[in-house]
Amino acid sequence: MNKTLAALALISVLALLIVGCGRQEAQQPAGENTAEKTAGQAADSTIPEDIKEVDSLSNELDDPELNSTGDYLDEVSW
Amino acid sequence: MKIRKGLAFLVAAIFLISAFSLVLAQGDDDNNNKERLREKSMTEAEKENAAGGMRAAVAGFSGLKEGIVQRFMENHPVIVQKFLEQLNQTNRSDIIKNLDRARLQQCLNNTEDCKEKIKNWKITTEKVKDRIRERTISKDKLLEAQNKFLKAKNQYIEMKNSQLRIRNDFLEMKGKLAQCKAKGENCTELENKTFEKAQEELTAIADRLIQHLEKVKSRVESAENLNETEAEEIIGSIDDMIAKLEDVKDAVEGAGTKDELKEAADLINVVWQDMKVNAFMYAEEVIHSRVGEIFARSEILEQKLDDVVKKLQDKGVNTTALEDKLDNFSAKIDDARDKMEQANDLFQEAKDLRDSGDKEGAKEKLEEAKTLTREAHQALKDAHTILMDLVHMINQKGESFDPDEINEDEEVDLVEEEDED
Questions:
Q1: Are B18 and A18 in contact (CB under 8 A)?
Q2: Distance from CA of B90 to the nearest CA of A (A)
Q3: Cβ partners under 8 Å of residue B389, min gap 6
Q4: Between A and B, how many CB-CB pairs are < 8 A?
Q5: Which helix (H) or strand (E) holds B125?
Q6: Which candidate, B296, B299, B135, places its Cα nearest to that of B228?
Q7: For the segment B370-401, what is each residue's pLDDT rounded down to a tens digit?
């Protein structure tokens, strides 16, 4: 009786282990460990930096108020 | 005895739970297997649709391109078959093989239009580094240009504030002088002070324009996507305008009469009229070249993403969702390509108009080019948002992808329009 119970317990534990490992493998495909890292790297990549730079360049190199220069010059020639 | 019974019950319960789990797990596996089989049988069915000449026509295309062709083929088998057979006969099928997803899709949607477009397309083989930049600038020079830019930017703000303050003082004095003259009083002192303030303002206007030009110049110096000749030409032109403004400053300082002051103001105005077209054009060329660099990087990324998807397909991974995203990414890149090409043409038209003396016409074309460049930039921003999703999806499917990992010495084949020379 004791031997049967021990055998059953051993089989049960083994079965749980097999199911557990199988599920873990299914939920964690190869390469997932690098997923967050790579996505993080992508967020810091040069393309976002370039995009930001273009946005700031548009402001830095364009001052709409400069268009009043002609009027200022007219005022001075009084 | 009771303990032994309890133990037996516990062990039996564990056994039942584990047996149930095994059955469930087996069920999951069965479902997965069924799904794989269904995918496999769908591919087989699609392949069956591609019977006859079609199979031969699409032979040689990469798996991905074949995938797009087959997806389209389901609805229009005859059109695609004829189209691809004709391409094979005219030796233009190489272009289709190297075409990005968006343009291939457009080709399949309108084969007649595509046949015309293909005549003007060519395959360019280029190193990545030559694709993304026109010239290489040393780090020291880039740093120097950046420092010059920051200095000019600060000085521009300083000069602008100073000029506006002087202008207020000048306008106030002008008002007082008018009142003085209206009263018929002796206004000599006030007149002299107003004259000095006018001199100050003209100098401030010239300084403000000089600092604006310095800002543009430093950005041209660090623009790696402008070729050396273009950059030198622009810098030469900017230096010329700065030199003229410096000369005018001397003339302003030496002016002894209102007429001489007016002459100096007219000279500043001549440079300003030049700047309205040229400085605007140079600034926009810098921005356009920067957007062009982002576009070139993104275009290469599309090819890299295609390779990763192919790798996943080879592993038997279902890539349908990934490919849909990649189609969207490709469409955004194509939108940017289209707008950048239109902007390029408009820049050329603006230069021609400027050279023929039509400054207003040139300015209008530049405004249009500016709008298109900003739209292309927006399309690239949207593409980048999609790229982030793609990276996440690829990683979830077990492959790693780093958008920054580009070997600049690697050669890439890209389809471009032939130059109209």
A1: no
A2: 38
A3: B325
A4: 161
A5: strand B121-127
A6: B135
A7: 999 999 999 999 999 999 999 999 999 988 88
Distance between alpha carbon B95 and the CA centroid of its chain, in Å? Answer: 24
The CA distance from A60 to B149, in Å, is: 10
pTM score, whole prediction: 0.72
- The span from the CA of B89 to the CA of B86, in Å, is 5
Give DSSP secondary structure letters for B343-393: HHHHHHHHHHHHHTT-HHHHHHHHHHHHHHHHHHHHHHHHHHHHHHHHHHH
- Going A12 to A17 to A22 to A27, the CA torsion angle's sign is positive
Inter-residue contact B415 to B122 (CB < 8 Å): yes
Most A CBs within 10 A among B4, B7, B10, B11, hence the mutation to make, goes to B11
Q: Which residue shows structure tokens 């403004």? A: B245
Residue B248 CA, chain-centre distance (Å), reads: 39
- Give pLDDT tens digits for A15-55: 666 655 444 443 444 333 333 333 333 333 478 889 999 99
Quick one: average pLDDT of B264-284?
Answer: 96
ipTM, 2 decimals? 0.70
Residues of B in contact with A53 (CB under 8 A): 290
Angstrom CA distances, B114 to B106, B108, B414, stand at 8, 8, 17
